[in-house]
Amino acid sequence: MTDQASTRVLLVDGSQLITEGLRLSLHRTHCFRVVGIAHTVAEAARSLRGTLVDLVVTDFDVPGAGPLRTVRDTAQYRPSARVVVLSNADSPSWARAALDAGAVAYLLKTSPVAELLPLIAAAVRGAPATIDARVGSLARLPARMPPPASLGRLSAREFDVLAEMAKGMDNARIAQRLFISNDTVKTHVKAILRKLGARDRAHAVAMVLGESSEAFVTT
């Protein structure tokens, strides 16, 4: 693994504010060198094809394609690079999907920089796969298990709904938390069940998290 002092980093996030903040924070450590910044999946792919990178720090759902596309593109174009996913969602299902797609860490953007940087540095050194300790229901997650192959077909909003389902939220609560209507939630749930090939919502959560449905779904 690359010496941390010479780590070449690609930052990928739809928000320029996020990428600039990360660039400045990484630069101050004198341990990383940001060699590229991308705000869309297409920009990230071009950077990966044309720039040598050791580490990719990316949002879970970068504009321009489905969730985790940049993680998969990294595996294709720069298989030796390590990927850290930053997300606003403390969702076990999102964390599971990120690690199974090839990321080595799933960290929360709300974490203080003083906490994020050591975890990113550990990822560079080859530390075991890491999930932010504040991710909900983490204690219930067993060792990594491959998710259904169709998980990658879910849209970003369907991931949102599935994450809330995994927390035991009913349709009304999901609608309230995601600022959408009950009918829209029902539409997303139907799409999730169809894409995962699940019998019902409890089965869908169990398929993704590898746990008994009763542990996650209350309605």
From TrEMBL:
- Which key words tag this protein in UniProt? DNA-binding, Phosphoprotein, Transcription, Transcription regulation
Taxonomic classification, please? Bacteria, Bacillati, Actinomycetota, Actinomycetes, Pseudonocardiales
Q: Which residues form the Response regulatory domain?
A: 8-124
The residue ranges of the HTH luxR-type domain are 147-212
Name of a matching Pfam family: GerE
Which residues carry the post-translational modification 4-aspartylphosphate, per the record? 59
Q: Which domain of life is it from?
A: Bacteria
Q: What is the name listed in the Swiss-Prot or TrEMBL entry for this protein?
A: Response regulator transcription factor
- Please report the organism this UniProt entry assigns to the protein: Lentzea kristufekii
Family annotation (SUPFAM superfamilies): C-terminal effector domain of the bipartite response regulators, CheY-like
Sorted alphabetically, which InterPro entries does this protein's record hold? CheY-like_superfamily (IPR011006), NreC/VraR/RcsB-like_REC (IPR058245), Sig_transdc_resp-reg_C-effctor (IPR016032), Sig_transdc_resp-reg_receiver (IPR001789), Tscrpt_reg_LuxR_C (IPR000792), WalR-like (IPR039420)
